[in-house]
Design a protein that fits this description.
four-stranded mixed beta sheet; Immunoglobulin-like; five-stranded mixed beta sheet; Pathogenesis-related Protein p14a; about 475 residues; alpha+beta; elongated
């Protein structure tokens, strides 16, 4: 009597990014499948990137403008020279990050090619940002923000900027009136410029999150440089900030955040007094822990300006937990079929646990979309004898875990190699005039029993009885059959 049960295997796959704002190399430099790195010249890669990233550029500008408009700031227009400068620097970064051996490519912060280009090469477009925009014919003041190490949509890139401190300051400048965005491989870059002679001068400071807004952001983890260096690499709450025009000075005396119960959340106040990277016209309150999804919050600030003390309070709400996966019902698939799961989230990484009762899924692909990823897997060809996969999706900082299942029924006439070997061994055995092998299977789990004897009916009955006993222990509901009999 022989028994074969295929064992389970558990694989964890990290999808997305870990909410990092660093400009250094932290992940593999290999570009994703279907990228443009196979193109040989910078001009070819720039042309291909312009075609591929135009939608993402539009989504980045739309997302940033939505935030600026809600805060009472002017919206930005798309500028082609700035877009080209962003694309060229993104290209340079993608090349330099793939070659860490060239130490001269590292800037003073030890970050390869962050906002400087250190070595002339075919991808060099200017050592400084000013050099790069001047090369494109842009002669006005500019700033640049970027991230590294994860393929992001334009809107997701802006959300990362707004969830941080220094990068938020960069994109909320009152003087900016135009911008360009470009991304090649995993190196998104945005360049903002100001060609106008005036700047926004709101009657009172503006705040983020905007009053009465519903905000999807709840926190951030890595920003380089980190505004809380003693907590670098740890999750922190969504910063609350207040901003005035550059010519104005805010003496912030108190900035606090309260939850629905009216309790003040612990955190830190950052101003120019304790962080020289910030201007005298702005202040941030960084909560110690990420905010909660679907909750109401109230912020309050007291500041002095031009000899007068001012107070302001406003409320906002965090959006409901956006983490979702589709489809999550049982998906019936075929060998070699490609399946796509739509994963939606707005923060952190996503783990996918794949528990297999058949063949291990050995390939996958990530395609970024505006608010998450499309996760593609391909059913192995070897699943023609039946497979099943239990899926578990866990999002970082998301409370819920989402499960799913893939079932691959056996193709008619397909049997595992071990079962066929048992049939061959049985047929070659000198024991008994009659021989029978009875089997049962369900989605990759197989049991079988082989018997030899002098009476055909007794042999088959014994084989079926043994098979049923094994199938019962394994919880198989499929009936036992005699091999060769259906």
């Amino acid at each position: 009597m022989s028994l074969s049960i295929q064992t389970t295997a558990l694989t964890w796959i990290c999808l997305g990014f870990c909410t990092s704002f660093h400009v250094g190399a932290q992940t593999s430099p290999n570009p994703p499948a279907g990228g443009i790195s196979h193109l040989s010249t910078p001009a070819q890669r720039i042309e291909a990137a312009q075609q591929k990233s135009s939608v993402e550029a539009d989504s980045a500008l739309a997302q940033l403008n939505a935030y600026r408009k809600a805060m009472g700031l002017s919206v930005l227009t798309k500028n082609e020279p700035l877009t080209t400068a962003a694309l060229r620097h993104s290209l340079y970064r993608s090349v330099i990050l793939a070659d860490h051996k060239e130490a001269e490519n590292f800037d003073v912060n030890g970050t390869p090619g962050s906002h400087f280009q250190m070595t002339p090469n075919p991808y060099f477009s200017g050592k400084t940002l000013k050099d790069r925009v001047n090369q494109e014919g842009y002669q006005f003041s500019v700033t640049e923000v970027s991230t590294s190490g994860s393929r992001k949509s334009g809107a997701e890139f802006i959300n990362q900027m707004m969830a941080s401190v220094y990068h938020r300051t960069g994109v909320l400048g009152f003087q900016w009136d135009e911008a360009g965005f470009g991304v090649i491989d995993k190196e998104p870059v945005m360049v903002l410029g100001s060609s106008r002679k005036t700047t926004d001068m709101p009657a009172q400071p503006v705040v983020f999150p905007p009053p009465d807004s519903v905000i999807e952001l709840i926190g951030f983890k890595n920003e380089r440089p980190d505004p809380l260096p003693d907590r670098a690499g740890q999750w922190k709450g969504l910063p609350i900030s207040v901003h005035a025009a550059k010519e104005q000075m805010l003496e912030v005396r108190k900035l606090a955040l309260f939850n629905e119960a009216g309790q003040a959340l612990p955190g830190r106040l950052l101003t120019h007094n304790n962080d020289k990277r910030l201007g005298k016209n702005e202040a941030y309150w960084v909560p110690d822990a990420p905010l909660s999804f679907g909750h109401k919050y109230r912020a309050a600030i007291t500041w002095a300006s031009a000899g007068k003390v001012h107070e302001m309070a406003w409320g906002f709400r965090t959006a409901n937990d956006p983490f979702s996966v589709k489809p999550t019902d049982v998906v019936v698939a075929k060998p070699e079929e490609a399946l796509v799961f739509q994963i939606r989230k707005n923060i952190g990484s996503v783990l996918v646990g794949i528990e297999s009762s058949g063949q291990k899924i050995n390939d996958g692909a990530l395609v970024p979309v505006q608010d998450g990823f499309d996760y593609a897997i391909k059913i192995p060809k070897s699943c023609d004898t039946g497979c099943s996969y239990n899926l578990k999706f866990s999002g970082e900082l998301h409370a819920k875990t989402i499960t799913g299942r893939i079932e691959v029924p056996r193709l008619g006439g397909k049997f595992p190699v071990n079962l066929l070997k048992s049939v061959e061994d049985l047929n070659q055995s000198a024991n008994g005039r009659f021989k029978a092998l009875a089997y049962s299977q369900h989605l990759g789990t197989w049991v079988w029993t082989s018997v030899a004897g002098s009476n055909k009916k007794s042999v088959e009955d014994s084989a079926l009885a043994g098979c049923r006993q094994m199938a019962s222990k394994e919880g198989l509901i499929e009936p036992c059959r005699i091999h060769g009999g259906g």
